[in-house]
Amino acid sequence: MRSRLLYTVLLGAFLALAAPAGQAAQEATQPDALTPEAATVKKLLESRFPGATVGVVVKSPYFDLYEAQFDERLVYTDAKVTYVMVGSVYDASTKQNLTDARLRKLNRFDWDSLPLGLAFTRVKGDGSRKLVIFSDADCPYCKQLEKSMKGLDNVTIYTFLFPIDQLHPDAARKSAVIWCSADKVKAWNDFFETGKLPDNRGDCPTPIKETALLGQRLHVNATPTLMFADGSLIPGAIPLARLEEEINKGETEAKKLAAAKK
């Protein structure tokens, strides 16, 4: 694995302690173009780790290091790429994982470009908030998330059927049967409640292949994976309290992004 080529030194919380309190909470912003120094760091990373995808590189507020988007993670390195450090930076005051927060922003996807026609839609309450879920019919964590979502209100949920064949060989068939039912929402809810599938053969046209390609574009590799209104993604069956928090955060960030475009 390419990641094994990295010099793995966990940063942990001590990196945040090394920066001034206000500085640690700063978030590097993506420039319109790489600075000459950052461009050099990017070239060095690409030469020393052939085949790796190196994205945004910016100067971080930590120890005079550079932050680099390396495949699907963030790494930190010096200007000469002598050492590469992997791990999360925390704000010691707020306990916020700054690395995760930054990565979420870098990996945002434009909500308006989502092919929502590939999903089935559930509306709870006034449906004013938005949530996307990539879900596998046989995923136990998806079942756990469905239980948590019973407590949600005023949200429109777009569910993309995303069976992971390697883990759940029968999930694609079950997804097709659910999609081909007259009432997809009822079929989905009934299946997670009772395990019972609708009485059809699942032989209608389904969006499962297109959804798999969409998942690849978004780097979805686990179920459930959730997307919020600002285009940020989180994998895992998060509990209701955090789900509410992330939905509201996504709505707030989406409004800020929309205002910035005007």
Word description of this protein:
- This protein is of the alpha+beta class and 262 residues long.
- It folds into two domains: 2-106, no CATH class; 111-261, 3-Layer(aba) Sandwich (Glutaredoxin).
- Helices cover 35% and strands 17% of the residues.
- It contains nine helices and nine strands.
- The chain has helices at residues 14-18, 21-24, 36-48, 98-106, 140-149, 171-179, 184-194, 208-217, 240-261, and strands at residues 54-59, 66-70, 73-77, 84-86, 120-124, 129-135, 155-161, 225-228, 233-235.
- Strands 5-7-6-8-9 form a five-stranded mixed β-sheet.
- A hairpin with a 6-residue loop joins strand 1 (54-59) and strand 2.
- It is elongated, with a radius of gyration of 21 Å.
- The chain starts with 13 loop residues before the first helix and ends with a helix.
- Residues 1-32 have low confidence and may be disordered.
Largest sheet, strands/sense/barrel: 5 strands, mixed
Per CATH, the class of the largest domain reads Alpha Beta
CATH fold naming of the largest domain: Glutaredoxin
Mean pLDDT: 85
User: Strand share of the residues?
Assistant: 15-25%
First and last CA, distance? 43 Å
Number of helices: 9
| Rg over C-alpha atoms, rounded to the nearest angstrom | 21 Å
Count of DSSP strands: 9
Question: pLDDT under 50 segments (min length 5)?
Answer: 1-32
Order of helices and strands: HHHEEEEHEEHEHHHEEH
The helix content, as a percent range, equals: 25-40%
Spatial order of the strands forming the largest sheet: 5-7-6-8-9
CATH superfamily of the largest domain: Glutaredoxin
